Every structure is written in structure tokens, then in C-alpha cells.
Amino acid sequence: MRVLKYLLQKEFRQIFRDPSILRIIFMIPTLQLIIIPMAADYEVRNINLAVADHDHSVYTQQMIQKIKSSGYFKLVNYSSTFQEAVTSIEADKADIVLEIPAKFEQNIVREDHASLFLAVNAVNGMKANLGAAYLQNIIQNYNNQIRTKWVQFPPIPPQTNINVSVSNWFNPMMSYKYFMVPAVLATLLTLLGTFLTALNIVREKEIGTIEQINVTPIKKYHFILGKLIPFWILGLVVLTIGFLIMRFGYQIHPVGNMLIVYLFASLYLLSILGLGLLISTYADTQQQAMLISFFLLMIFIMLGGLFTPIDSMPAWVQKLTWLNPVSYFIDVVRMVVLKGSGLSDIKNHIFVIIGFAIFLNSWAVWNYKKTS
Amino acid sequence: MAKYNSNNMSAVIVENIIKKYRVEKTEVTALKGVSFEVAKGELFGIVGPDGAGKTSLFRVLTTLLLAESGNATIEGHDVVKDYKIIRKKLGYMPGRFSLYQDLTVEENLTFFATIFNTSIEENYDLIKDIYQQIEPFKDRRAGKLSGGMKQKLALCCALIHKPSVLLLDEPTTGVDAVSRKEFWDMLQRLKLQGITILVSTPYMDEASMCDRVALLQEGKILAIDKPAQINQQFQDPLWAVQASNMYALLKVMKQWEAVASCYSFGEYYHVVMKSENAGASAINEYLVERQFQEIEVKKIDANIEDSFMALMNTAHE
Predict the structure, then answer these.
(1) pLDDT tens by residue, A343-361
(2) Secondary structure of residue B95 in the 3-state scheme
């Protein structure tokens, strides 16, 4: 016990003596938590629109006004030829070209029928998709508006309308931040836990202290606990800072009991620190450790459901995500914070993460050999 | 019962240790059957150039490395089976400074005392001599110490659990001449406390300070004996030669078929002749013929370095 106590004391001393490590542990997650959810926003705004107007009528002006006032579009080019508008797409200035044919107004008034053409720059698939959909929606709306104005007494009864009203559960404002902040927090904790543990032990290898320690009668589990406990504590401290930012910075009031998140996070940290430990037993230099962790975490985070929903991934990838601890943590944080899930709702997640912790740590301990 | 007997006399027994490494696709044999014994309380030196296998040998003895074959025991305990016991009895100072640079002198010492389940106070008298020299800097971080002080701290850390066998891997490499001298004095004092000391060094002048030395070359031991004894093995007459143009001199001497070997040693070349008859006058004559000036030739006694060079040459032949 005395040995373990001194190991911990030594580890904390080293952490607090290195200002760069302290900055990494506290400042960087805080900054990232503030920046990433603000920037990584799924709502597509600022779509650049080029209009090729062959009609120049009152109707086209009204329609363009309506599109502009929606707030989603910026008119960057207004020209009389389609060629000119397409050039602005090629120059990457515009995302969508709306071509209004000649006699557009005339056709609507006389023939009760007119057509428009949309050309979409599909390099950024998501922006193109959503932009076109928004635009169609606005035009549809405008269409209805003029129909009601012109067709006062319809010769035939209007088509039946299905009225849809939507209610957003668990995130009534459909605010993107509610969804992102908890997941970003989970991701940051993962990064921090893995990197710090892996690099810390590999550093002892690099400076040769591990050699000096290996010839002492120190017990394997003492050494490993001495490494894991400090980062486990630091992880929980960072989590707390993150929750404070979430609550007071983003005004997200967790629906569920935060103690459940802490319980899960403490188990989760064990498995993530185990991953770091495992990496450190295979890497000989900090550079190797860095690259291995980077590679693994990249996959874990991309397949963790942070940016793209796991449900929309191909079936085989969905099976892969079962092996991804990050996806469980992101899931749990979102469930508890947004839905207010209780212990019984996340019990499967808990079992899985305990499994991960046992598996990764035993692998690491098995591979950590005192003799090389 | 052989084991019991050797227990009484020998602190370290190494028998036919072979260690191989795989470097890329070729196999390199670092230790090619090394055997020796070190008596209790002896100061035993392992002298050899870089790459001779000194560090591999130490890593086998410190239980960090498993040898392909052969046995080694420390105080009668096998380095493979009883590594747990050995780790308690062994003090090891690796060649590279490997203490925590970001901990202070005192914290480093306390750390190693703690993991050996002891305290500074308990074994203070053993390290007192050495520790007193660095005690004024005990609140300084180890990384900020000078080379000589780092080495003293490392020695303190290796001694803090009162080991009965001390293994020092190239302790004086990269340390200035004064600190080296001090360090050897410290080792002599530790020897008086009854600690068996095994020290490796690439500097042959240090070999003469050991009780016995083993000359290690390319994984093989060329000779084990007292330093004075090794010098006596050197039979041939040895000449120190100097002239104004030293570079041309080396070339000329190496081309001369009467020369067995010629190598630089300080400001002289040490020359061994093939026949006993070719003495100072013959060398002088030969050099005058070739227009060398300020020629100086004198007969000298072989020191350990000469012996080592001679042994190395025979090993190559």
C-alpha cells in the first residue's frame, strides 16, 4: 500500500510539474468543447445561389425575394444567361443555379403551369442535397401562394392535403447543440485517456526509467495501478469541467441523473486507459504510440456516431461498431442527458463496457513483460 | 553439491552464456559463450570496446534479458528462475542516466527507497559518503544536475536498498576525468563494505583499478586475470615511436613487413616487432632512411591497453 501511495504521489508530482501536460489536460478539452459544437453544425446555411433569369418579371423578383428572405440562401450571382450562372458554379462561387425560363410569369398566369430548372453542385453532397430540398420547399410554398391568389374559385376541388404536424421528442427545439455537446465531451475524454496513458508509459521506456524500475522488486499491478489511477482521476475531473461547460455554457439541463453518467464514465475510463496501456506495451517510442493511438481513435470516433448516425451506416459497419467502446459512451451520454434514461436502460451498455475494461486491461497486463 | 560450494566463494557465476539478436534479417550473436566467476567482495571489471557485448551481458545478469543458453547465478540464485529474489539483492546502474529528470534529487532517492520497501534513513550510512556530496542540491531536479552529480545520484539510487551485488554498466562514460577518479575512489570504499561490484568500461586505463578484469571482445572473453597478470602475458618487446610527421610514420610502419602491429597511443605509436632482434636501432635506421625527422624510439613496458591490443590481434588471427 505504501508503495502504491508513493507511486501515485510521484505520478501526480510529475503531472503537475509539467505545464504543457496540464495545459493539454485542462485547457485543450475546454477550448475544444467550446469550439467544436459551435462549428460542427448540421444545419446548412449560407448556400450560395446563382440565378439565371430569362424572364425578369415581377413574379421572378417576388420569388427571389422569398428565397433570399428564408435566411438559408445568399444570392451571389444574378445573370441573364445560364452559361454565366454555371460559370459561377465552376468557379466554386455558387452551390446551386436556379434557371428561370423566359415567359415564366406569362405561363403561370395563362397556362397555369410553368417549370424551373435547378443545377446543383454536388461536390459537397450534404450541402447539395439539403440546399436543393430547401429550395424546392420554398418554391413549392411560393407556388401555393400564387395559386390561392389566382385560382379564387377552382373549377375542380383542390387536391386533398395531408396535414402533418411534427413534435420533436427529447430535443424540442431540435437544437443541434443538444445532440453534439454530450458526444463531443465523450470523444474528448476518450482522446485524453488513451493518449495520456500511452504516452506516459512509453516516455518511461524512452528515458530508460522503466529499465531501472524493472530491476526492482516492484509488483506488476502496483506499477500499472500507479499509472492508471492518476489518469482515471484526471479523466473524471475533465468530465466534470465538461459538464459544467455544458450546463452553464450551453444551457443544456440534463434530464437524467448525472450520477449515472459518472458511474458509466468511471467504468468507461477504465477500458479506455486499458487501451492506452495496451498501446504502450506495443510501442517503443512516443512517436509510435502517437501514431497507433491516432489511427485507432480516428476509426473509433468516425464510427462512434459522433457525426454520422450509426443507424445509417452499412450493416457490416454497424456490426463493427459493436466493438467500438466510443459508440457506447456517446450513446449513454446522449441517452441520459437528453432522454433521462435510468440505470436499467443502459444496463447492457454497462455490461459491455465492463467487458471491454477487463479484456483490454488483461491483454495489456499480459503483454507488459518485465523481461524483454 | 557444486552449487553450494560455489555459493560460498562466488557472488556471480556466469556459465557459457549465449545471446543472439535478430537485426533485420541477419542473426547477430552478441555473447558467444561467456563464462566467468566473481568472488564475494571483489571489484570485477569487464573491459571491452563498444559493441563487445557488455550491456547485453549486464542485461542478462539483471534479469532484463533472457539468454538463449547458459546459466548465470547471483549469490546462488538463478537469473531466470529466481529473478524475484535477485531483484531484491541487486543494485543496477544502467549506462544511460535513467532517473526521473523532473523529480528532485531527494524525491528520486525516496522513490527508489520506497519501491524497495525501505527508506533513506534505514540505509543512510551506506550512501552517506556519496549522498553528502549531492545533498546541498537535494531540492534540485535531477535533469538540472551536472553529469558527475547525476552519476552520484544514480549510484545512490542503486545502493539505497543495500544490495549485496552492484552492477554498473559503463558508469564513467561521458564523465570528466576528475569525476571519474572520484567515482573509482567511491567504488573502492564500497568494496570495503563488502559489496561485490561488477563494472563495465570501455576505458582500459580504468581496468587497472579493478581486482580482476575480463577482456571482452565481440562477445568472447579473451582473458580474465588480475590487471598486473594480464600485462605479464604480454611477451614481445614494445617500442614507443615518435617523429615529426606522425601520419606518414603510421603509413610507413604499417607497410614495413618487420612490424607485427602499430597503433597510436597518446603522442606515440606503440610498435610491436615480429622478431626480437629488431630493436631501437633497427627502427631508427629504417626511419632515417625514409627521411623522418625528430625521431624518438624508446622501449616501454606494456600496459593493459597494449595487452588488450595484442590479445585482440591474436583473436583475429
Answers:
(1) 898 999 999 999 999 999 9
(2) coil
Chain A residue with the nearest C-alpha to that of B101: A207
Both B204 and B261 in one domain: the answer is no
Are B91 and B166 within 8 A, CB to CB?
Answer: yes
pLDDT digits (tens, 9 = 90+) for B249-280: 888 888 887 787 888 887 888 888 777 777 77
Chain B closest-CA separation from residue A87 CA (Å)? 57
Nearest chain A residue to B107 by CA distance is A10
- Which neighbouring-strand residues pair with B48? none
Closest CA relative to residue B208, chosen from B306, B286, B128: B306
Number of domains in chain B: 2
Right CATH for A47-150 from 3.40.1710.10, 2.60.40.1120, 3.40.50.1980, 3.10.20.90: 3.40.1710.10
> Using 50, 70 and 90 to split pLDDT, how confident is the model at A152?
low
ipTM of the complex: 0.73
Q: How far apart are CA B310 and CA B317, in angstroms?
A: 11
Between CA B168 and CA B38 the distance in angstroms is: 14
Contacts of B103 in chain A (CB under 8 A): 10, 13-14
Mean pLDDT value of segment A236-246? 91
| Nearest by CB: A10 against B84, B92, B103 | B103
Put simply, whether A2 touches B (Cβ < 8 Å) is yes
CB proximity B117 to A under 8 Å: yes
B110 and chain A in contact, CB less than 8 A: yes
What is the per-residue pLDDT across B9-33, written as a single tens digit (0 to 9) for each? 688 999 888 988 888 788 888 888 8
